[in-house]
Write a sequence for this structure.
């Protein structure tokens, strides 16, 4: 299986789009939106192992962040 990644410039565009979208939502809908986005992306990836690895990567990424 070939693993594809986005170039950094495209990743920045994704971040900007995500941040702008979150800014338009009421805070009470942010978690629902992020869950729906995660499911939509998982559906497009189509590989449970890659999706699970991405969930773990995201979890590790916020483990040291205090909120």
């Amino acid at each position: 299986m070939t693993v594809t990644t986005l170039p950094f410039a495209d990743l920045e565009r994704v971040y900007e789009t995500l941040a702008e979208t979150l800014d338009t939502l009421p805070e009470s809908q942010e978690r629902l939106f992020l869950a729906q986005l995660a499911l939509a992306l998982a559906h497009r990836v189509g590989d449970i192992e890659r999706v699970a690895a991405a969930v773990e990567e995201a979890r590790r990424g916020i483990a040291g962040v205090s909120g």
